[in-house]
Amino acid sequence: MFCCVTLCCIAEELMEMESIRFKLLLLFSLWICPLIHATEVSYCDENVEYNVKVKGVEISPNPIARGKAATFTISATTGESIYGGEMVIDVSYFGWHIHSETHELCAETSCPVSIGDFNVSYTQVLPGLTPPGSYWLKMKMFDGNKNEVTCIGFGFYIGFVSTVADIAQ
Questions:
Q1: 132-158 pLDDT, tens per residue?
Q2: 116 shares a domain with 91
Q3: CB 45 within 8 A of CB 150
Q4: To the nearest 10°, the Cα dihedral for 51, 53, 59, 64?
Q5: Rounded to whole angstroms, how far apart are CA atoms 106 and 138?
Q6: How far apart are CA 39 and CA 153, in angstroms?
Q7: What is the DSSP code string of the chain?
Q8: What are phi and psi of 126, to 5 degrees?
Q9: Main-chain phi, psi angles of 163, to 5 degrees
Q10: Strand 96-104 and strand 69-78: pairing?
Q11: pLDDT tens by residue, the chain, 169 residues
């Protein structure tokens, strides 16, 4: 009889430990996984064969915190050397165009861009009063002859976190 009671107690403890592991795994998936997911990228026109193929976009931190620096790193590959050019960035918030800026390509990556893989990285501090929510970024890249070499779009999210000091600025 004692043996059966002991085995039942051991079985209950094992089930409780398994339940704790499951809860920890669930907590990890809900809080940590969204921070490390890849950003989905789409081409502006799926029927165009762009010279620059974008392999991915990394946003850090993700989600972006208002009033803090955010870095967008675009991994790409090119079949032709690029000796200059520019990037035109348009940002929309809930479908409304809210911001445009143009950057010299060589200010965001080393030029000339050789045939093969390269990264374009841009960091910006968003104001503390930036509204939280979902945004859409469209980026067109042009070579030195003003030929469009790629055009992509991707969504990103700005979180609710902001400090009182950020809002006061």
A1: 999 999 999 999 999 999 999 999 999
A2: yes
A3: no
A4: 60
A5: 19
A6: 10
A7: -HHHHHHHHHHHHHHHHHHHHHHHHHHHHHHTHHHHPPBPEEES-TTS--SEEEEEEEEESSSBPTTSEEEEEEEEEESS-B--EEEEEEEEETTEEEEEEEEEHHHHS-SSBPSEEEEEEEEEEPPTTPPPEEEEEEEEEEETTS-EEEEEEEEEEE-S---HHHHH-
A8: -85, 140
A9: -90, 160
A10: unpaired
A11: 444 455 445 546 645 655 555 444 333 333 444 444 458 999 999 999 999 999 999 999 999 998 899 999 999 999 999 999 999 999 999 999 999 999 999 999 999 999 999 999 999 888 888 899 999 999 999 999 999 999 999 999 998 864 444 444 4
Q: Which domain holds residue 28?
A: 2-33
One-letter amino acid for residue 64 of the chain:
I
Locate 55 and state its tokens. Answer: 């392999």
pTM of the model: 0.71
With b for 16 or more beta-carbon neighbours within 10 A and e for fewer, the 15-36 pattern comes to eeeeeeeeeeeeeeeeeeeeee
Task: Kindly state the tokens that stand for 167.
Answer: 């809002």
Same domain, 83 and 154: yes
**Is the separation of the CB atoms in 76 and 52 below 8 Å?**
yes
Total number of domains constituting the chain? 2
Residues 121 and 158 in one domain: yes
